Amino acid sequence: MVVKDDDEVKYPPMLAKLMTDLERTGSMVRDLGDGRELCLVAQMFNVKITIGPSGAEEWDDSWEYRKEDDDAAVAAWKTWDGEGDAPGPWIRTTYGAAGGFRRRGR
Questions:
Q1: For residue 8, is it within any domain?
Q2: pLDDT at residue 99 in the model
Q3: Contacts by 38-43 with C-beta closer than 8 Å and gap 24+?
Q4: Is 70 exceeded by the pLDDT of residue 7?
Q5: Rounded Cα distance, 28 and 22, in Å
């Protein structure tokens, strides 16, 4: 969770560096060690986790989280093993080259 104090944004210590990098670059990548990588992408209204082949320009699947759930998206990105659905309160997932999607209510 982000805490604002005197117009300065402060993050809990474990997320501070990660979120600073995310704000600066717009995305963060984590290698899963099995030829796939997870990417955390800041978007205008959502935060997205994508999964796909390491080094590829396209992803296979993605899960979107509301901006107010960015701490859950970061936690999922840091801990998820890439199997099944991403954990946490995601609201939409897109999958595969077919471009299909599912929505999930809160």
A1: no
A2: 62
A3: 38/77, 38/80, 38/82, 40/73, 40/74, 40/77
A4: no
A5: 6
- Cα 69 from chain centre: 10
| Cβ–Cβ < 8 Å for 30, 41 | no
What percent of the chain lies above the pLDDT cut of 90? 28
Q: Which domain holds residue 51?
A: 26-103
The mean pLDDT value of the chain amounts to 77
pLDDT of the residue at 42: 82
Structural domain includes residue 32: yes
Structural domain contains residue 13: no
For residues 64-73, give the mean pLDDT: 89
Q: Is 3 helix (H, G, I), strand (E, B) or coil?
A: strand
Structure token digits, residue 73: 């998206």
> Position of tokens 């290698």?
31
The answer to whether 29 touches 37, Cβ cutoff 8 Å, is yes
Asked whether the beta carbons of 78 and 40 are under 8 A apart, the reply is no
Give me the number of domains the chain comprises: 1
